[in-house]
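Narrative of accomplishments. A recurring question from our advisory board has been how the design workflow behaves on a single, concrete structure rather than in aggregate. To address it, we present the structure tokens for one chain from the evaluation set, followed by the sequence designed for it. No filtering or post-editing was applied between the two.
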């Protein structure tokens, strides 16, 4: 059974005295347990709206959204679905609710009514998972952007979700903060087997995923491994997107006659290929 399954999902925003705004137009997708999926698309393509269907923040106008087989449209499923799918937003300040880091992380488990010993164990576990144990007594609002986002992730992890959905979590961070968050996300996926859905507009981040899905006009238009998707540079450009910088560099060098292979994604792969040419 897939972690997430969208069956012909349609979603309309309805406004008074205006025609409905159609955002999702029959999305079909499956995300397997333990996978790391990057979701790409230009602003307004529907990716954030789709993400909010993953934990029943939004319900489809048409079609079905299934979370481990549970239909999000059934009210009795809302609580177990939100236990399974945790969401991290773009601005960590929107998810920080306490004046002390460990109290912030404890907020979710406390609302579950867990006993104090279980809450303590979950807080310690979650802070260790994001490498923020040393900051447990600090004020969240005095931390760096990357540290705040890691605390926000810890707060979600303390709920013991099976799936982590991150909606552009590095968009407001500097390069160091971005790297801290990405390292955390990759570790959670690869060491703990957590399903990860990462919405991003950074192609280098998407290249870290096992699978890349590209949306346009409310539907999924590309779906494959990072190498498969980023090999379609012309199609991505037509969709208002780019490719990872190493991929773009290698493409430019090939146009100048340099014999480089297709499908290079990382700086390391690019450097290794260039080194082979001069040895």
């Amino acid at each position: 059974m897939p972690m997430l399954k969208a069956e012909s999902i349609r979603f309309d925003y309805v406004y008074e005295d205006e025609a409905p705004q159609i955002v999702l137009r029959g999305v079909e997708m499956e995300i397997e347990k333990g996978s790391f999926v990057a979701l790409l698309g230009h602003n307004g393509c529907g990716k954030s709206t789709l993400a909010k269907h993953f934990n029943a923040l939004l319900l489809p106008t048409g079609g079905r959204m299934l979370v481990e087989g549970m239909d999000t449209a059934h009210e009795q499923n809302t609580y177990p679905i939100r236990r399974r799918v945790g969401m991290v937003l773009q601005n960590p300040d929107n998810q920080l609710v306490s004046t002390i880091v460990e109290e912030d992380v404890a907020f979710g488990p406390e609302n579950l009514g867990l006993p104090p010993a279980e809450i303590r164990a979950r807080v310690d576990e979650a802070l260790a998972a994001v490498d923020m144990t040393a900051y447990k007594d600090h004020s969240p609002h005095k931390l760096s952007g990357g540290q705040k986002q890691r605390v926000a992730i810890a707060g979600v992890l303390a709920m013991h979700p099976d799936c982590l959905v991150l909606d552009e979590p590095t968009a407001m961070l500097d390069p160091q903060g971005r790297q801290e968050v990405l390292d955390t996300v990759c570790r959670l996926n690869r060491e703990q087997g957590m399903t990860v859905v990462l919405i991003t507009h950074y192609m280098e981040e998407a290249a870290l995923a096992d699978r890349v899905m590209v949306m346009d006009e409310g539907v999924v238009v590309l779906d494959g491994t990072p190498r498969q998707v980023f090999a379609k540079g012309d199609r991505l450009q037509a969709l208002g997107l780019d490719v990872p910088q190493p991929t773009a560099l290698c493409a430019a060098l090939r146009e100048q006659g340099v014999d480089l292979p297709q499908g290079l994604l990382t700086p390391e792969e690019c450097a290794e290929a260039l080194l082979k040419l001069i040895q």
